[in-house]
Design brief:
The chain is elongated and about 70 Å long. The protein is 28% helix and 26% strand. Strands 5-4-6-7-3-8-9-10-11 form a 9-stranded mixed β-sheet. The longest helix has 18 residues. The N and C termini lie far apart (96 Å). Strand 12 and strand 13 form a beta hairpin. The chain is of the alpha/beta class and 416 residues long. It has 2 domains: 208 residues, P-loop containing nucleotide triphosphate hydrolases (Rossmann fold), CATH 3.40.50.300; 172 residues, 2-Layer Sandwich (Ribosomal Protein S5, domain 2), CATH 3.30.230.
């Protein structure tokens, strides 16, 4: 008796025909270059032909605005179609007018929520890039469930992806996010696409940061920094200067030399320490993880002479930036120490360094880049981890632990 089904032996399969790795590598993978430097850099040099890219972010953050600008820039050199499933052609046209996109633009626009129609258009090979805004609004006719359901998102994405690969057409999909900030829909959405971009920041103001969380054709270490104005999202040439332009030098204010992707950035960390009016002290943080702040406060209580158990502590990262790297630890600790004692840094310095639970200051990457950015903006020193013996870096004042950095670099304001 033959065993033909999936649980039996092989049925109707054929031997795979492999080729060597060297023969498979496409060294000259063609890219569509938009001319918007920050977007091209995050993508790794432009949109790869035949790739499927997903961009996600909070409602109102500027995804559709950025993509309309990107599609318009690419339409100067390539055949581009913008498919809107969320807005009417009139609404998209008004946005294009507001963004200063000329009526003579070669960008083509269509409105559809049918994945079948969109894939038929991609299969026609009439376009080199198709933007779908958004994947949650499109549906496949063969599936009975409503648009946005897991079955519809999975099948629509798979259908568009397979067609894009066959037609060698680049596709950019817009994705929604949940209230926790994760991309809405099944995780398979992120697995099957080639590139996942996140647009983060404060929807009401401040900087927007575009970063790649997955990129099969380039690095995930780059970040583009934008701000919104009447003409849409504009790349910020010197974000450090913009972030520090309104800074008032006082106790509780420390300048952190952080890294966004591979780009150095100076940002102000503010701390406010106040005696609590209630039995339980309040801890609040904006722009940095509150759990990390609580951990650093506990470490300061244990490893230094600071008494913070009856103090309310508030931490703010200026400019709507969100800091996730551990190199912010020392700046947060020094801001809290400065605010608690009413002391200021006695040097015009930037601060960076990871702090352990023993109070030790640990090494962080890209130190030279941080120092170069500090020098460019006129800072005289940098407070950071001690370097290996014999290694001397300009501006850097190395510290072994938090207690040393607080004792050595904080002093009373002479004008106070």
């Amino acid at each position: 008796m033959s065993m033909g089904g999936p649980s039996g032996g092989a049925s109707g399969g054929r031997t795979l025909t492999p080729s060597s790795v060297g023969a498979s590598v496409q060294r000259d993978q063609r890219r569509l270059v938009s001319g918007i430097p920050d977007v091209d850099t995050v993508l790794g040099g432009g949109v790869v032909v035949g790739s499927v890219n997903l961009i996600a972010g909070q409602p109102g953050i500027g995804k559709s605005t950025l993509l309309l600008q990107l599609a318009s820039a690419l339409a100067k050199k390539y055949k581009v179609l913008y498919v809107s499933g969320e807005e009417s052609a009139h609404q998209v046209g008004l946005r294009a007018e507001r963004l200063g996109i000329p009526a003579s633009s070669k960008l083509e626009l269509a409105t559809s929520t049918s994945a079948d129609d969109i894939t038929a258009t991609i299969a026609s090979k009439a376009y080199e890039l198709v933007v779908v805004d958004s994947i949650q609004t499109v549906s496949v006719a063969a599936i009975g469930s409503a648009a946005g359901s897991i079955a519809q998102i999975t099948n629509s994405t798979q259908l568009i992806l397979n067609t894009a690969k066959q037609a060698n057409t680049a596709v950019i999909l817009v994705g929604h996010v949940t209230k926790e900030g994760a991309i809405a829909g099944p995780k398979v959405l992120e697995h099957v696409v080639d590139v996942v971009l996140q647009l983060e920041g404060d929807r009401y103001g401040g900087f927007k940061v575009l970063r790649a969380t997955k990129n099969r054709f380039g690095p995930t270490s780059e970040a583009g920094i934008f701000e919104m104005d009447e003409q849409g999202l504009k790349a910020v040439e010197n974000p450090s200067a913009a972030l520090l332009s309104e800074r008032q030098i006082s106790d509780g204010s420390i300048v952190l030399a952080t890294i966004e992707g591979t780009r150095p950035l100076l940002v102000e960390v503010q701390a406010l320490v106040n005696k609590t009016s209630y039995g339980y002290p309040k801890r609040a943080a904006s722009g940095i993880d509150l759990n990390r702040v609580n951990l650093l406060v506990a470490m300061l209580e244990r490893r230094t002479k600071l008494s913070l158990a009856d103090q309310d502590i508030y931490i703010n990262i200026v400019g709507g930036m969100r800091i996730t790297e551990p190199a912010a630890d020392l700046a947060v600790c020094m801001a809290i120490g400065s605010a608690a004692k009413g002391l200021q840094l006695h040097k015009n310095a930037v601060v960076f360094g990871e702090v352990g639970l023993s109070g030790e200051v640990r090494h962080v990457p890209y130190i030279e880049k941080r120092l170069a950015e500090a020098k460019k903006l006129g800072f005289e020193a940098a407070i950071g981890p001690l370097q290996k013996q014999g290694k001397k870096l300009p501006l850097l004042e190395g510290v072994r632990d938090v207690r040393t950095s607080l004792n050595q670099f904080l002093e009373k304001d002479n004008d106070a």
